[in-house]
Design a protein that fits this description.
Oligomer: single chain
CATH architecture of the largest domain: 3-Layer(aba) Sandwich
Strand content: 15-25%
CATH topology of the largest domain: Rossmann fold
Strand order of the largest sheet: 2-1-3-4-8-7-9
Number of helices: 16
Number of domains: 2
Radius of gyration: 33 Å
Structural class: alpha/beta
Helix content: 25-40%
Largest sheet: 7 strands, mixed
CATH class of the largest domain: Alpha Beta
Shape: elongated
Number of strands: 16
Length: 456
């Protein structure tokens, strides 16, 4: 590998005169020349900031991404291509913004060498303070002196599993050797290299090479090798995953089971089914039942579910659109049939009732029938309404009651074959196929008792 001199089009290195970044990059270049690795097997992943200028000066592959995310890209590259030598160049700003990624790379012991160009501030964007700015350090955002404690990058990764960790300054005479040793390490290696931003931090704080060492001592930040791999070092991250995956190689993956058309439907237009219930009552499974039965009947199907972040509390709604023609959108603005199954779901679906037509249907549980009826009192052309008498679902497990009630309601409309609904119930999971199908069969046989007129 030829030594680094200038950019491909003869533009000099783009750092301020006296910037320590230049020294780190030149030291990295000399270490790579010593190793004589094939440049095609080396990937430089650079972060945002002044350090982000670096990858363009090396005749290797390069990847330049978002601020603080360089270690995620490097991890992905190493997992996809374990044979590559992956090097991350990141500043103290990127370490702060991507602190979680820094910790996770150490935890995984991913085989990436990380060089931290640590100049104690955000040098590219105006000299703002960063996570490593020393307490009392004066920057453009802390002109009175920083009040925060600086982050110990090296000890952070060492405490989280990194096996090769070193801290020093750009002025160390053996920096080339330190970088080469880190590059040779088979696992996550990090060098926390302190340098001087001559444009901002050094000028404002009158910082010198000696001052960097004094700052380390002041804050108890150990200098030198903090952790070095031993004979019982952890396995490198991509190799550890490969060992787990190895027994699975050669075994064919189970392909998705297609739903073959076994039934027919007389449906001639798109038909929207909305289920509005409560979380934890298998509303989504009931929507899946309708969709599976429709697919088995040769119809196109789309399902969209909605529920809060609490998952097991609050509303749960499912919108299932079925059609004899291809569907190019999700969701339903005006349902053809609405199942009002719980107060939580009614609050979410109440607005859609006003958009329903005389050709539409509402199936509502008894405790909400008066509310729905009252809402329909001023409707210019109200939809049909039916009561879902859940007390008629005798002998059906509570977990299957909503599934059964929806099956009875859909069957009463004649849009899907009852046998398709029974078959669809069997597609909701092998472990529960028999229970679900038995529940649907029971509901279909008692449909006249479950689906009642409002005055019954």
């Amino acid at each position: 590998m030829p030594a680094l001199t200038t950019y491909r089009n003869a533009i000099p290195l783009g750092f301020c005169p006296g910037c320590g970044h230049r020294l780190i990059l030149e030291s990295l270049d000399r270490a790579l020349v010593r190793l004589q690795w094939d440049p095609a097997k080396v990937v430089i992943v650079s972060d945002i900031g002044c350090v982000g200028l670096s990858d363009q000066y090396l005749i290797t592959s390069g990847f330049h991404g978002l601020h603080g995310r360089s270690l995620t890209y490097a991890t992905g590259i190493k997992l996809a291509r374990p044979d590559l030598h992956v090097i991350t160049l990141i500043g103290d700003g990127g370490c702060g913004i991507g602190a979680a990624h820094l910790v996770s790379a150490a935890r995984r012991n991913i085989g990436v060498t990380t060089l931290v160009f640590n100049n104690l501030n955000f040098g590219m964007t105006g000299g703002e303070h960063s996570v490593t700015t020393p307490t009392d350090g004066r920057t453009t955002t802390t002109p009175w002196g920083n009040t925060e404690v600086p982050l110990d990058i090296a000890q952070t990764v060492a405490a989280n599993g990194a096996m090769h960790v070193w801290r020093g300054t750009v002025f160390e005479p053996d920096l080339d050797d330190r970088i080469e040793a880190a590059l040779r390490h088979n696992g996550f290696a990090l060098l926390d290299i302190w340098d001087l931003c001559v444009a901002y931090y050094a000028a404002t704080n009158k910082a010198t090479p000696q001052a960097l060492l004094a700052t380390m001592e002041q804050f108890g930040l150990a200098r030198g090798t903090l952790r070095y791999p031993s004979a019982d070092s952890r396995p490198e991250g991509s190799a550890a995953l490969a060992a787990v995956w190895a027994p699975l190689r050669g075994k064919p993956a189970s392909p998705p089971k297609p739903l073959d058309m076994r039934f027919s439907s007389a449906l001639t237009r798109p038909f929207g089914v909305t289920l509005a219930g409560a979380a934890g009552t298998h509303v989504r499974a009931a929507g899946h039942l309708v969709g599976a039965a429709a697919t088995l009947s040769g119809l196109w199907t789309a399902q969209r579910d909605d529920y809060p972040t609490t998952v097991r509390a609050g509303h749960s709604t499912s919108e299932v659109l079925i059609s004899p023609d291809p569907i190019h959108h999700m969701g339903i603005t005006r349902p053809d049939v609405l199942f009002v199954l719980a107060p939580e779901g009614y609050k979410k679906a109440a607005a859609s009732i006003g958009r329903m037509t005389p050709e539409s249907w509402i199936f509502v549980v008894p405790e909400l029938a008066d509310q729905v009826t009252a809402q329909l009192a001023n409707h210019p052309s109200p939809p049909h309404i039916r009561i879902l008498a859940l007390d008629a679902l005798k002998g059906i497990a509570r977990s299957s009651r909503m599934l059964a009630a929806v099956a009875a309601g859909v069957a009463s409309l004649g849009i899907l074959d009852p046998e398709a609904l029974i078959a669809g119930a069997g597609e909701l999971g092998a472990a529960y196929a028999q229970v679900n199908q038995d529940a649907v069969r029971t509901a279909l046989s008692a449909a006249d008792d479950i689906v009642r007129l409002p005055d019954a």
